[in-house]
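Predict fold of Dolichol-P-glucose synthetase; 574 aa.
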Amino acid sequence: MVLPAYNEAANIEKAVLVTAETLFKTTDQFEIIIAEDGSTDGTDRMASGLAEQYAYVVHLHSDKRQGRGKALNRAFKAASGEVLCYIDVDLATDMRHLEKLIRAVSTEGYDFATGSRMMPESDAKRPFKREFASKGYNFLVRLFLRSKLYDHQCGFKAFRREALFELLDEVENDHWFWDTEVLVRAQHKGYRVIEFPVCWRHGGSSKVNLAKDVKGMGSEIFRLWRELSFPLEVSGKGKVFLTTALAILILAFVATFLGASDILENVKQASFRTLVLASLVYCVSWPLRGVRFQQILKRLGNQYGLGFLTGSIFISQSANVILPARIGDLSRMYILKKSKDLAFTTSFSSITVERVFDIVAITSIAILASSGAASHFELAPWMESLIKLSGLAVVLFFLILFIVSFREGNTRKRLEMKKSQNGTSGKIKSFASTLLHQMSVVAVRPSSFLAVTVSSLLIWGIDIFTCFLVLKSFPTVAESVSSTYMISLIFLAVALGNIAKIFPITPGAIGTYEVALTAVFGLGGIEPEIGFTVAVLDHIIKNSITLIGGGLALSELGLRWREVLCTDKDVLKG
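Predicted 3D structure, encoded as tokens:
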């Protein structure tokens, strides 16, 4: 029997004695574990005294508060019984139900048992606001997580040891949502779960903070719904494997459809010298990326060396080639924090500005190129939608920043006020205000806007010129299509290919980028087989240089791939 205790000096002794008295009526083979979770009111001293006085009491102490779920996990792993239970220390649930709780697991064959304050037969009394919040919460759990239970959070539960331990590794929550996650996962796994009505009285004080914990549990409902609805996306490794397999399937399908033998023959015809030249040209864009990022950070009051910043970009872009959804950008935040102690807010805002100006550049290029291409061929509807969507996103972004900039006179004062606020809400507002303010400093001021826009256009101009050289490496294309028309066509193809990267489908947009380029080349009169070959070679050159540069930068900074690729989740939590 586990008694989770945080600042329960007023209740712990009574809880132990009443629990022991009740258990002795059922069995003489039991232990009571006090899972004391970083208490500051003397609960730890009282628990130690009880453990010394009674042989059946065990005290597990934590110097810092771990959270309800983590404290329970630790206690259950230390327990020796085959039937594991826990009850709230305030004894809000009538102890006459304890024998039923234990026997449900020990003799009736259930894997999980829980008391319920919300079944029609239950007798529960508590304040209206808690009753209302609890009913709303449990309704959402039943609706979104397909649970059949009425009450998921009653602190009166029992588990078959083997069944619980089979689930614990999957349970992610360490605090109040632990109960719900265990019961929901148990039902989804097909374990036998019983819920029975209990007599329950509000125990007075509660450690639940309605404003904070209910909001957090709402996000946990969404998190668990996503994991149960899309199980292959639960683990990071599973997601990488799935999206990589999807990229390979896309490439394999297109290659098979167009004719793999024709594509291989096209590769043999490509000029090796021109491909090498294309690679050298693409290398020039990387110092430019470093200069742009350096200018963004400088305007935010941070001055770092060009070599370091270019290396950090190499690493984050390499992570983007490997990981889906461009979460490799978080690796750069980690490097800036670890090496230069740069605040996450500043690194996040600077990278966001960089990404927005990438979209500005490629959208502008796409609009200009589509206007020029209109006289030669008609764009597919999805191409027009993609350009319009990215253009709308850019307009909305700058509209928000212009509003922030317009009100900049009061921004600093508001920031100081928000920083002084306590609690999660104040921190979130402060973070959002700081983020918007920093982005407006770079994106809205004319001098900054011009500098970042020009550097972004240069970067993407080099990216496009690289693809132009790859296309020129095919003699048949170079002879049949004029250079002027070819450049405008490549402008549109590369722009659409990179706009497609905004949508997190595959790592590094491998597959989707090639499909977008092949489609545009096909509309422009270039044979699909050659267009696909050009797209593949162009992407291979760019990704290879990115990965090689990333590897060299890692070595220079004394980092490892595993360290960088595994920090993204930690950065998000931070």
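Residues 112 and 159 are 5 Å apart (CA to CA).
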